[in-house]
What we know:
The structure holds two protein chains of two kinds. Chain A is low in regular secondary structure. Chain B contains eight helices and no strands. In chain B, helix 7 crosses helix 8. Chain B is globular. Helices cover 68% and strands 0% of the residues of chain B. The interface between A and B is medium-sized, with 8 and 18 residues.
Amino acid sequence: GNTKPPHDEL
Amino acid sequence: VLLLKIHATKNCSGVSLKTQELYAIVFVTRYLDLLFSFISLYNTIMKLIFIGSSACIIWYIRFHRVVSQTYDREQDTFRVIFLILPCLLLGIFINHEFTITEILWTFSIYLEAVAILPQLVLLQRTKNVDTLTGNYVFLLGGYRALYLLNWIYRFLTEPGYRQWIVWISGTIQTAIYCDFFYYYFQSWRRNEKLSLPS
């Protein structure tokens, strides 16, 4: 799985 | 907590400049997205606070006339290049997307996992750890440990939510604190000053 997760954490 | 301590006591003994500089690298490389994406006002403000507070701490330790005199220069000798280089290589080879910003973001995730190490080594070398410094390390580790709960909660409530790089790095990061947590609670229970065994 190379889908980029959203970077919504600090 | 650390900035207030340094500002109020004008003393930074037992505080690792190396760890603070690693954190500055972590925050700057991760929060590049301040320039091109917006998550929430909270998210943006916290990013600015993290970058700003670590920059302030570094300035105090390096340049403040009084504070810089109290820096444990001879004890804070961790070779950070041995952390930075492997994390950079790991970021280049194990990432979600082969772009500059994504590689830097991934590098920051890996580097944050180990950024506390120079501070822990310095604490171990310090005979009587300042209560505020001990509390700072405890809060930093505790803050990160709470992410584990947050990830479980999000996994259970948000369909498709998963981020293996962050999860594994964050778990390692929290594990590194385990030893410290043990001695922190022990000294707290016995009402003694914190000191880590060498």
